Amino acid sequence: MKETQPRLEIGMLLYPGLTLLDLIGPQTVFSWFSNIHLVWKTTDLIFTDTGIGIQPTSTFETCPRDLDVVFAPGGFGQQAIMDDPEVLAFLADRGSRARYVTSVCSGSLLLGAAGLLKGYKATSHWSAREALRMFEAEPVDARVVVDRNRITGGGVTAGIDFGLVLLAKLRGNEAAKLTQLAMEYDPDPPFDAGSPKSAGPAIVEQAMAVMAAEMGKLAR
Amino acid sequence: MKETQPRLEIGMLLYPGLTLLDLIGPQTVFSWFSNIHLVWKTTDLIFTDTGIGIQPTSTFETCPRDLDVVFAPGGFGQQAIMDDPEVLAFLADRGSRARYVTSVCSGSLLLGAAGLLKGYKATSHWSAREALRMFEAEPVDARVVVDRNRITGGGVTAGIDFGLVLLAKLRGNEAAKLTQLAMEYDPDPPFDAGSPKSAGPAIVEQAMAVMAAEMGKLAR
């Protein structure tokens, strides 16, 4: 695979309490074809929702103005920045010019809060999907939703599928396939419990309780 | 889900040039039930194979002596530490007492170099699997290989399947299912190209070339 096109410029929002796998799934998919900018207010270490510290590479000021992709991950920390004017201004500004405006998991609520999903179909983590209506987006129960240049993924691990769908659009099916092979993405879940329907109501209730407790811990 | 058992103690090796998704897949799976120790020689920031900086939480000295799980991720940086006496001594020591000795991707070669896979069936990234024979391990073409208390996963994304298999052993199927649901792990790859067989020889050749180039970049 000869890389004859310029590298993609991808701006990925960081924030305290993000779910790291929301970010690292698509970041890994894009990495061979992209300059990836991990963006926050400062370049101080960010602590994610399970306590892992990662290093931003850009600030809202230094991130390139014109991006191929602007991306928002989800996570328990998402709620705390839903009315943060700096975050929303960054997303609205880069989103107004980016080729693709994207998210995984509850990151779509951040896009919504920035006014970027009004009149668009979108998805989110299953537990957060209906909240998209607050931003005049139309929730869709699907792993990856493409509506014009808005591409949103479902919860956490959906970021891998999302990334491959978007990479295929940007660099072609061959690039996406070789990336899928390199990542050995030939999934084989040991249980059939990855959606509320397959998991059933008892497991859904337990998951909601654990997620609420985890969110509570982060708030302390 | 009431957490009535003590949290699992999980030691996950970090090193420069590791593949971050190898680590973050299982780390996310384990996170609700575990104290996770990200271990390296120092607690200075580690730069992974795509340049993302993450923060160790423990050193080889401060990591708990008795672990439920010792884990080695893979990545282009694996080769550079294959004869590092500190790394191998850490893995051999913790591995001698851990309930489970585990890896994802080319991390199994590190376990092998530490003498932990002699006489065991194991797997690795598809491109590295045959190299397990150097350490008297028996390579198996499977996504997750369980041989007594050695559990090894295939390449990169196999870490999610690996994590769920191991969590089910440690905390039961219910815990694994609610984690799978919370992570919305209901995969839907856009292509059938996640294994050498499904991708076909042309894509395999391209992937090998890109991986070699990426490894070369890291060495510079």
Helix and strand composition category of chain A: alpha/beta
CATH architecture of the largest domain in chain A: 3-Layer(aba) Sandwich
Largest interface: A-B, 66 and 66 residues
**Strand-and-helix sequence of chain A, N→C?**
EHEEEEEHEHEEEEHHHH
Distance between the termini of chain A: 49 Å
Going across the biggest sheet of chain A, name each strand in turn. 5-2-1-6-7-11-10
Overall pLDDT confidence of chain A:
95
Number of domains of chain A: 2
CATH superfamily of the largest domain in chain A: Class I glutamine amidotransferase (GATase) domain
The amount of beta strand of chain A, in percent, is 15-25%
Count of separate DSSP helical elements of chain A: 7
> What's the helical proportion of residues of chain A?
25-40%
User: Mind telling me the CATH class of the largest domain in chain A?
Assistant: Alpha Beta
Q: Over all CA atoms, what is the radius of gyration of chain A? A: 17 Å
Tell me how many strands of chain A there are: 11
The biggest beta sheet of chain A, please?
7 strands, mixed
